[in-house]
Write a structure and sequence with these properties.
Number of domains: 1
CATH topology: Jelly Rolls
Shape: globular
Largest sheet: 5 strands, antiparallel
Structural class: mainly beta
Distance between the termini: 37 Å
Radius of gyration: 18 Å
CATH superfamily: Galactose-binding domain-like
Length: 159
């Protein structure tokens, strides 16, 4: 029994990713309204400016009816908008099978937002994410995007 506890502790210790500076999720409870902007804020506390990768983390279930997702992502500090991107991420292959990590009834995708971005230390940053999904031949955005469970944001230091 003691060997199992030690093994579990070592597994947990070595599986932790020390490069992750920030990760957080907002729940949208299976249906993301078009006006529901997902907001995140984080502060980096380092001695100098560093380079990072940023990700949008998306948890979906089988109610998600699309093979992709369009997102509008704004990254800003307290004074300026740093980037504003309209992104199209592929969530399923050509056969319709969802990509990402499958966990029981959820599929988790970690979608690369910025491959290399310099962020200053001791600065508060803000991220807003909204979906921009549309139905073909219909005016306006899709009111509710069903099948989205959680929306997250992750900042990872580049070694």
């Amino acid at each position: 029994m003691r060997k199992h506890i030690i093994f579990a502790f070592l597994l947990l210790f070595f599986s932790c990713d020390s490069n992750i500076e920030f990760i957080n999720y907002n729940s949208v409870n299976g249906s993301w309204h078009k006006d529901s902007i997902q907001d995140f804020s984080f502060e980096l506390n380092h001695l100098q400016e560093e380079e990072y990768k940023t990700y949008i983390n998306l948890r979906i279930n089988n109610d998600y009816k699309f093979s992709n997702i369009f997102l509008i992502v704004v990254l800003s500090d307290s004074l300026n908008i740093i980037t504003k991107d309209t992104l199209n991420f592929k969530l399923a292959d050509k056969s319709g099978r969802f990509l990402g990590d499958k966990r029981i009834n959820l599929i988790e995708n970690s979608l690369l937002h910025k491959e290399k971005i310099s962020l200053e230390n001791n600065m508060k940053y803000y991220v807003s994410i909204e979906h921009a999904m549309r139905v073909i031949n219909k005016v306006g955005g899709l009111e509710y995007l069903n099948g989205v469970v959680d929306v997250g944001y992750k900042v990872e230091k580049i070694k």
